[in-house]
Design a protein that fits this description.
CATH superfamily of the largest domain: Medium-chain alcohol dehydrogenases, catalytic domain
Mean pLDDT: 96
Number of domains: 2
Largest sheet: 7 strands, mixed
Number of helices: 12
CATH topology of the largest domain: Quinone Oxidoreductase, Chain A, domain 1
Structural class: alpha/beta
Number of strands: 17
Amino acid sequence: MKVFGYATQSPTSKLAPHRFERREPRKDDVVIEILYCGVCHSDLHMARNDWGWSFYPLVPGHEIIGRVSSVGSSVTRFKAGDHVGIGCMVDSCGHCSPCEHGLEQYCEEGNTLTYGSYDRLDKMPTYGGYSEKIVSSERFVVKIPDGLDLAGAAPLLCAGITTWSPLRHWNVGKESKVAVIGLGGLGHMALKLAHALGAEVTLFTRSIGKEEDARRLGADHIVLSTDEKQMVSVQGHFDLIIDTVPYVHDINPYLSTLSLNGTLVLVGYLGGLEPILSTVPLILGRKSVAGSIIGGIAETQEMMNFCGEHGITSDIEVIKMQEINTAYERMQKSDVKYRFVIDLASLKADKKGEIV
């Protein structure tokens, strides 16, 4: 299946129009016309091979909202015309313990990523949502609730589920005290979702001037993490801290703010911690430092339904596909509130000239 989109050809190349081959649909597949695709910070990391496993050409994008154009003969959950979404995965082994428990993101054989991976059956490369259409097994497609803004729903497929999964795993509810470190794409979704779950929500930030926006997004309190008095005032307070910071940083100052049995969960950073983690507050308070990544398909659907019920979407800036390289530059400077979303209708301008 010939598909048109945007790709990068090397770690130093800019994204540019590119025609590529997707696999032919199977009987359990859904073919989706892509309407919107969110721009995740991991798209930039993958495009530039920051993690060392990218291969090229690379078509990024794993916050995909679209319309079903056709379905395979065995598909039962979707029909042509349905609004649907695809997140970070398009397949997994289906038989290991995590998969059997609806945690495909932790598949022991390794899940098949929406892009930058290889199909489990025919070994063709997978390509992401910066394109006009995508093919996926219906098992990895989620329904978009009626009435939910489609463009604003796109980042829910990564930023939303990445923060929803730990909120649900640690049973956040009306009696919970939750803090969020960092106010970006992930952080602003964590505030919205924790607030909607009924928790008392606090934002940790290093930047003066974010209070008004944080309160609009659902924060009850704002703590300046560089202010020693403010940090002392919340010692032993939080049941759960969601750390969304995407670069190496010192988490030690936050451990004293956890309550007995409290957990700090890292969702934004992959790599070693610097300075070294002190185990003293962990041992003396039975506290934990944990990690979490995206979510399973069942909990992604659960989150999407919850967002539909509460009218929750991401705060976005819609861009044309042709603006993606500028968007990457701005994203590196944190110059977006809080997620770029590509309107894929803009691809038609390039496709008319058949630029490849």
